[in-house]
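Q: Hi! First time doing this. I have a protein sequence and I read that you can turn it into a structure. Is that right? Here it is:
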Amino acid sequence: MKKLVTTLIISFALAVGVGACSSPEPVDQTQQGELTDSDPRVPDDNSPYDEFTFEAGEGWTVTGEMTSEAFDTYLWLIGPDGSSLVQDDDGGEGTNSRFSYTTTASGTYTIRANSYDGAGRGAYTLHYTANPGN
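A: Yes, that's right. Below is the predicted 3D structure, encoded as structure tokens:
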């Protein structure tokens, strides 16, 4: 009986340990959102934003594309240390935003869906991916 209990405890510890060390999973997300007066604001220009977080490994390719019929879009990619890595205004078609970035560290990344100026409000679509490099 003692051997069975010991085996179960070791098996459980290994299962928990393996889960804790797992690598991030690839990301492929599409978000329908809306910038409103009740959203948090960028201090520099008082423009509203929404944020989306995900995990990525070092050397991963992160892409983002934001489209809106209502306003001029603006995208930010923020790194695990809180620094702004990419900002894009019109990298997409018309006034839509698009970026691609290769990560230099593993961790939690944030995409900020924003408007080009403080007046931008309305519906948008955000598509973002994060995938291991080749």
